[in-house]
Specification:
CATH architecture of the largest domain: 3-Layer(aba) Sandwich
CATH topology of the largest domain: Rossmann fold
Structural class: alpha/beta
Order of helices and strands: HEHEHEEEHEEHEEHEHEEH
CATH superfamily of the largest domain: HAD superfamily/HAD-like
Shape: globular
Protein name: Trehalose 6-phosphate phosphatase
Distance between the termini: 28 Å
Radius of gyration: 19 Å
EC number: 3.1.3.12
Largest sheet: 8 strands, mixed
InterPro entries: HAD-like_sf, HAD-SF_hydro_IIB, HAD_sf, OTSB-like, Trehalose_PPase
Number of strands: 12
Keywords: Hydrolase, Magnesium, Metal-binding
Family: Belongs to the trehalose phosphatase family.
Strand content: 15-25%
Length: about 270
């Protein structure tokens, strides 16, 4: 097993927690800039988004880590929603997959001209999915999420068909997906990966003295893994939270949110010790 396996492989992703010494050696004397997904990474996946509550111990770790290196939370959730759930002031928050970014002396919004299309598409989806038990249409400022985790198995395909039908009527929007979720977003070349690269530039973290780390668990996080991998070997690190192993552009892995929290705690201790 190598520390940096092929991004296309489904196995051989070393654990950033179990092999932390090797991970720290790779980091060397560079300062990390840590980017964190929320659902499935910091908290377990649950049936309803409002039930994904961050454990106080993990919140304390993130707060301690933010005192040692730059930390940003990059989530598919609405910006205000993820900021409320994390509950730490002065962090950088990127909501709606990076379309809505806020931090100290920082405010960026991408795609405001698409809000009207999102309003109309939301109304259409509510009409199409009315009566489908368990289907949840969640409007964010720059996206619409359709959750299917509570939908009966034999109805899930029809929900996907309804989403595709609505999307066909709104060419300015595009469909993306994830674990038990469909999403409509502005049809522009912007995603978590581009948001991370933009933040690195904006915050002055794009130089060789900084190593960006991204922790995520879902398909939308692969955009960030690929963006960091494209910077060149050793210039960005993706850590996929996954069990069992799956194809990923991330080079390292963690099994679940509990391991993610333990890894962040280990990283904070290592940084504090210099």
């Amino acid at each position: 097993m190598t520390d940096q396996p092929s991004p296309a492989s489904t196995e051989g992703k070393p654990s950033a927690l179990v092999r932390f010494d090797a991970f720290a050696a790779m980091l060397g004397d560079r300062r990390p800039a840590v980017f964190l997904d929320y659902d499935g990474t910091l908290t377990p996946i649950v049936e309803r988004p409002d039930l994904a509550i961050l454990d106080d111990s993990v919140r304390a770790v993130i707060r301690r880590l933010a005192g040692l290196c730059p930390v940003a939370v990059v989530s598919g959730r609405d910006l205000d929603d993820v900021a409320r759930h994390v509950g730490i002031d002065d962090l950088i928050y990127a909501g709606s997959h990076g379309f809505d970014i806020r931090g100290p002396d920082l405010r960026t919004q991408i795609g405001e001209e698409y809000l009207g299309d999102l309003d109309e598409a939301e109304a259409a989806l509510l009409g199409r999915l009315h009566g489908v038990e368990g289907a949840l249409v969640e409007r964010k400022r720059f996206a619409i999420a359709i959750h299917t985790r509570r939908v009966a198995r034999d109805r899930k395909a029809s929900v996907g068909d309804a989403v595709q039908g609505v999307a066909a009527a709104f060419p300015k929007l595009r469909v993306t997906g994830g674990k038990e979720i469909h999403e409509l977003r502005p049809n522009v070349p912007w995603d978590k990966g581009k948001a991370v690269l933009s933040l690195l530039d904006t915050l002055g973290l794009a130089g060789p003295e900084t190593l960006p780390l991204y922790l995520g668990d879902d398909e939308t996080d692969e955009d960030a893994f690929r963006a960091l991998a494209a910077r060149g070997e050793g210039q960005g690190v993706g850590i996929r939270v996954m069990d069992p192993p799956a194809p990923s552009a991330a080079a390292w892995s963690l099994k679940d949110p509990a391991e993610a929290g333990a890894f962040l705690d280990r990283l904070a201790v290592w940084l504090a010790e210099g």
